[in-house]
From TrEMBL:
InterPro entries: Papain-like_cys_pep_sf (IPR038765), Pept_asp_AS (IPR025661), Pept_cys_AS (IPR000169), Pept_his_AS (IPR025660), Peptidase_C1A (IPR013128), Peptidase_C1A_C (IPR000668), Peptidase_C1A_papain-like (IPR039417), Prot_inhib_I29 (IPR013201). Belongs to the peptidase C1 family. Residues 111-336 form the Peptidase C1A papain C-terminal domain. This is Peptidase C1A papain C-terminal domain-containing protein. GO terms for molecular function: cysteine-type peptidase activity. Pfam families: Inhibitor_I29 (PF08246), Peptidase_C1 (PF00112). Residues 24-79 form the Cathepsin propeptide inhibitor domain. Residues 1-17 form the signal peptide. It comes from the Eukaryota. GO terms for biological process: proteolysis. Keywords: Disulfide bond, Hydrolase, Protease, Signal, Thiol protease, Zymogen.
Length: 338
């Protein structure tokens, strides 16, 4: 009996190994992966391990789903590069131009049940930071682009490379703070348009020589600050409705890299320390899912990432709202243009 059981186990193991081989070949072809033989062994091992994690999550988790993408065979070091947020101490600015009165008035207004800026012309297509810890620059520009377009009616794409190369307050591909990027842009006199200073750091992983040119300015900053008080979902919703997309910082667990759909949440991502963060993203909307027989209604944020349009849900993901999941409600900020 034991002999036949051993044979059955062996047959199942061989079948699983053959299936994994086929999935690995298909994955490499789909995402254009090519490795030397000695490197491929390590990559395939990571891929298969992540496949098991994806399968387990999708069997057991009714709230959000995982799937294969360009990160599925990434090493921990490669993923670490993508987490480029190094936020400085959060110090509110002195409120200027009667901002206190304006904000207090806004907080008294009723909020819509949902809002989604993804289809607004003022929101540029999702961009890709590549293998460079420049998420802070993309987060800063997304809000600035939107604010400029909302004021003028003309869409604009601003240069992330300008901040990566020129911003002395931040560390380029080694990380940064989107509010310090705004400080630099304000002091410099504005942010250049991307067509005059295109992004290249996604492939070089290095910072280039600064090529600032004030004749190609696309937006100028008049004021920026944190949303206050924090963390407070209602406050963030109010600013989102009235000022547009809100950059924020969050903690990224390994599970998020393979997100494909649903409302992301992870008990390990509810953390006590506000400064336990490593990635900059942009909140572009909010809403609530419809309840089902197995899952209750879930309030969520709509969040824009900078890992390309082929990641997640066309470059976006949903994350649970109202519980400060991954610290995402602790670091929301807003910007106003001249």
């Amino acid at each position: 009996m034991k002999f036949y059981l051993a044979i059955l186990i062996f047959i199942v193991a061989v079948a699983i190994a053959d299936q994994d081989d086929d999935l690995w070949k298909s994955y490499k072809k789909k995402f254009g992966k090519r490795y030397k033989p000695e490197k491929e062994i390590v990559r395939k091992k990571k891929f298969v391990k992540k496949l098991r994690a994806i399968e387990k999550n999708n069997r057991e988790n009714k709230k959000w789903q995982m799937g294969q993408n360009k990160f599925t065979d990434f090493t921990d070091d490669e993923k670490k590069v993508l987490r480029g947020t190094k936020m400085s101490k959060r110090v509110p600015k002195t409120i200027e131009n009667n901002e206190t009165i304006i904000i207090d008035s806004l907080l008294k207004r009723a909020l819509p049940t949902s809002i989604d800026y993804r289809r607004w012309k003022c929101l540029q297509p999702v961009k890709d930071q590549g293998q460079c810890g420049s998420c802070w620059s993309f987060a800063a520009n997304t809000a600035l682009e939107f604010s400029q377009c909302r004021k003028t009616g003309t869409a604009v794409s601003l240069s992330e490379q300008m901040a990566v190369d020129c911003d002395s307050y931040n560390l380029g591909c080694n990380g940064g703070d989107f509010t310090l990027a705004w400080q630099y842009i304000q002091e410099k006199g504005g942010a250049m348009i991307s067509s005059s200073y295109p992004y290249v750091s996604g492939t070089t992983q290095t910072n280039g020589t600064c090529k600032f040119n004030n004749s190609a300015i696309g937006a100028k900053i008049s004021f920026y600050d944190w949303t206050m008080p924090y963390p407070n979902a209602t406050v963030s919703m109010t600013y989102l409705v009235n000022y547009g997309p809100l950059p924020t910082a969050m903690k990224v667990l390994d599970s998020l890299f393979d997100y494909v759909s649903g409302v992301y949440s992870d008990p390990a991502c509810i953390v006590a320390n506000d400064y336990d963060i490593d990635h900059a993203v942009v909140i572009v909307g909010y809403g609530t899912t419809a309840a089902t027989s197995t899952v209750p209604a879930i309030p969520y944020w709509i969040v824009r990432n900078s890992w390309g349009a082929n990641w997640g849900n066309k470059g976006y993901f949903l994350i649970q709202r109202g519980v400060n999941m991954c610290n995402i409600e602790s670091w929301t900020a807003y910007v106003k243009v001249v």
